[in-house]
TrEMBL record:
Homology family: Belongs to the glutamine synthetase family.
Molecular-function GO term, any one: glutamine synthetase activity
UniProt domain GS beta-grasp: residue ranges: 85-174
Stated name of the protein: Glutamine synthetase III
Domain GS catalytic: 179-616
Organism superkingdom: Bacteria
Gene3D superfamilies named in the record: 1.20.120.1560, Glutamine synthetase/guanido kinase, catalytic domain
Length: 730
């Protein structure tokens, strides 16, 4: 593959990038090549504009129109130097994935020709028809018009010949119609709340960043086989298919050697990622056959999330070049592991202090405990909401299915961390940890070696939310999800706790308590109220389900009902307090969630119905005729007694096949009827519940009959590629 590198040279008033040969193919040579990053901005923008943009990104200072014009001009120059002809506002609507509408740079020049134009106005804001995207009635409640608006904190990038500008997407009256707007609000919320707390320890702190490192799991299937599986094409998963005789029982796939065809795909994908500034770092096989993972180095959450969305679309394209189909669905195959997207999450200050890492001084250790306990309190209080944030029709197959995180959100801390919290709780009074000057004397009894993490070896794979030494790993997120959903709920909930924490400390200090004492007392009080979110045992066990219910954790398993958590008084108040969502926004977004859930099950039900009646039943009937024919011919050839004996098994098989065919026909008819009934329901919530309760279960029962038939019917007749073919890439 020939790689192009670009060199910045001065030309006229503006510096220009020209392609040069890529001599070494080293990632450092082409990393970020397609991104309008700080380096490019520095080259393409006047110094004043550059400084203003950087200040806007780093310090949230407002950006003037004049600066926006200068940025637009520089961006256009850079893009055109890269051979770009079009630009698009790149937005994250409430569907899976991203949306874009491409416009060319051309404007009439008044003399019959055109010139390339791109103004600050076009960069900053564009009108988008909100009615073409899921909006949950916001459009009716407010206005049909929507706007996309430039997110200056995320750099523009080039895909093909198009300049993509990351944008938020809002209604005319300012309600969010996307994932990015509330994500930015939540990040802002956690920044403000955490900064206020950090300043109690160090007044030099001006900002707290949220960091995200996702691990994207996916399946690869040969494209030619996918072409013969309408279920994969239309729903992203197999709706039928008997387990292969061999699947993951030998545990030989995880970290096994990567098939060369797959490795070629991965290499190509990583190059594309690096050109787009996505710091892809790790690749390996996953547990199930044909299942793999790619993970980057963690980044600021908004950027990391943009990069994950970008990755998902780039993956699909790169896979095509290698005759693969990428399956991002949470459960493409029954009987083998599904796919998740672990979200490794942490907070850190602009002074370089990671907040989930113990420090070297007693004060730093107290700060560490304050943040850990605030996270525990947030996950405890907003337990159901955090589960709702990762719930979807696809992820419902993973959760609670004894392979992935359970459908109850608890936090794993590990022995060492739990020991520290025990100690904190066991203190008779805060004074135990304070000397006479009110200075902290706080020891965590940890080896104080630099950066030695709290022991993260005792990993618990059954926990949905695990502390892993310097970060939390939210493992319940689905592989196809927009991580923003989880990051919004988590960052907002933590922001809310930090606000309360700070207020409680302020109250104590106003009552005359010293700062350290006030913080210790508050954190201990908080811990007492949330400690029961910690569970280090086996999350799959039935004992845990019973225990979690006793603790009052959310144990609901029905996806549409889990969405109700967004509308509880507590959630509405929390989102209002943190400025992340207004109540009308929450209501509208839940309408969208229910609607999408219904549509996903509806499509699956239709596809399964078609396949069952058009593909499976006719083939099973044909095979049944072969057996019948055989039995009849036996009668012609042999004595009735002998024929009866010889054909006995055929007849038994014929009866079984007939039984399955009848069941498939009846249950498919039932499923159609259940859909009809559900479709008449007006309320999106009630309709989703009906789909969950009456349609979805039939998908499984119909499938069971089909999978039985797959084992009986002549292999040559079977119309669909089987699991053993789909799942083992050579
Ligand atoms: P695992 O062993 O769970 O696969 P890795 O070491 O591969 O873990 O890291 C998983 C992800 O966690 C990577 O994206 C990594 O950059 C990210 N990560 C590491 N430290 C942090 C942190 N402090 N905050 C957020 N993400 C982090
Ligand atoms: Mg991990």
């Amino acid at each position: 593959m020939s790689l192009l590198r670009f060199q910045v040279v001065k030309e006229g008033f503006c510096k220009k990038a020209v392609p040069v040969d890529e001599p070494s193919g080293r990632p450092s040579a082409y990393f970020g090549q397609q991104v309008f990053n700080r380096e490019k901005m520095f080259s393409y923008l006047p110094k004043k504009a550059y400084d203003a943009v950087i200040a806007a990104i780093d310090n949230k200072t407002p950006l003037s129109r004049e600066t926006a014009d200068a940025v637009a001009k520089g961006m256009k120059h850079w893009a055109m130097d890269m051979g770009v002809t079009h630009y698009t506002h790149w937005l994250h609507p409430l569907t899976d994935g991203t949306a874009e509408k491409h416009d060319s740079f051309i404007e009439p020049d008044g003399k019959g020709g055109v010139l390339e134009e791109f103004s600050g106005k076009l960069l900053i804001q564009q009108e988008v028809d909100a009615s073409s995207f899921p909006n949950g009635g916001i459009r009716n409640t407010f206005e049909a018009r929507g706007y996309s608006a430039w997110d200056i904190s995320s750099p523009a990038f080039i895909i093909g010949k198009t300049l993509c500008i990351p944008t938020i997407f809002i209604s005319y009256t300012g309600e969010s119609l996307d994932y990015k707007t509330p994500l930015l609000r939540a990040l802002n919320g956690v920044d403000e709340a955490a900064t206020a707390v950090c300043r109690l320890f160090d007044p030099a702190v001006n900002r707290v960043y949220s960091y995200l490192g996702w691990e994207q799991e996916y399946f690869l299937v040969d494209e030619s086989l996918v072409a013969a599986r309408p279920d994969i094409i239309l729903t992203g998963r197999t709706l039928m298919g008997h387990e292969s005789a061999k699947n993951q029982q030998l545990e030989d796939h995880y970290f096994g050697s990567i098939p060369s065809r797959v490795e070629a795909f991965m290499r190509d994908l990583e190059i594309e990622c690096h050109k787009l500034g996505i710091p892809a770092k790790t690749r390996h096989n996953e547990v199930a056959p044909n299942q793999f993972e790619i993970a980057p180095i963690y980044e600021e959450t908004n950027i990391a999330n943009d990069h994950n969305l970008l990755l998902m679309s780039v993956m699909r394209e790169v896979a095509k070049r290698h005759d693969f189909r990428v399956l991002l669905h949470e459960k493409p195959f029954a009987g083998v592991n599904g796919s998740g997207k672990h979200c490794n999450w942490s907070l850190g200050t602009d002074t370089g202090v990671p907040l989930f890492t113990p420090g070297k001084s007693p004060e730093q250790n107290l700060q560490f405990l304050v943040f850990i306990v605030n996270v525990l309190a947030a996950v405890r209080k907003h337990n159901g909401l955090i589960k709702a944030s990762i719930m979807s029709a696809g992820n419902a197959h993973r959760l609670g299915a004894n392979e992935a995180p359970p459908a109850i959100i608890s936090v794993f801390l590990g022995r060492q961390m739990s020991g520290i919290l025990d100690k904190l709780q066991a203190m008779s009074s805060s004074d135990d940890f304070l000397n006479i000057d009110g200075k902290a004397q706080f020891s965590l009894d940890l080896p104080q070696t630099t950066d030695l993490m709290i022991d993260n070896t005792d990993r618990n794979r059954t926990s949905p939310f695990a502390f892993t030494g310097n970060r939390f790993e939210f493992r319940a997120v689905g592989s196809s999800a927009n991580c923003a959903s989880a990051m919004i709920a988590l960052n907002a909930a933590v922001a809310s706790e930090l606000i309360d924490f700070k207020a409680a400390v302020d109250r104590r200090m106003a009552g005359g308590e010293g700062k350290m004492q006030a913080m210790l007392a508050t954190v201990r009080e908080m811990l007492a109220g949330c400690r029961d979110i910690v569970f280090d045992g086996n999350g799959y066990s039935d004992e845990w389900k019973a225990e979690a219910a006793r603790r009052g954790l959310d144990c609901e398993t029905s996806t549409p009902l889990i969405f109700d958590n967004y509308l509880t008084e507590q959630s509405v108040a929390m989102f209002r307090k943190t400025g992340v969502f207004s109540e009308p926004e929450l209501k509208a977004r839940n309408e969208v969630k229910w609607e999408i859930y219904t549509k996903k099950i509806q499509i699956e039900a239709r596809v399964l119905g078609d396949l069952a009646l058009n593909h499976i039943v006719p083939v099973a009937t044909r095979y049944q005729s072969v057996l019948l024919d055989n039995a009849l011919k036996m009668r012609q050839l042999f004595t009735p007694e002998k024929a009866g004996k010889l054909a006995a098994q055929d007849i038994e098989e014929i009866e079984k096949i007939a039984g399955h065919i009848t069941a498939i026909r009846e249950e498919t008819a039932q499923m159609v009827e259940a859909r009809k009934v559900a479709n008449r329901i007006v309320s999106e919530r009630e309709k989703a519940i009906a789909y969950h309760d009456t349609v979805a279960p039939l998908l499984d029962t119909i499938r069971r009959h089909i999978d039985k038939l797959e084992l009986m019917v002549d292999n040559q007749m079977w119309p669909l590629p089987k699991y053993r073919e789909l799942l083992f890439i050579k």
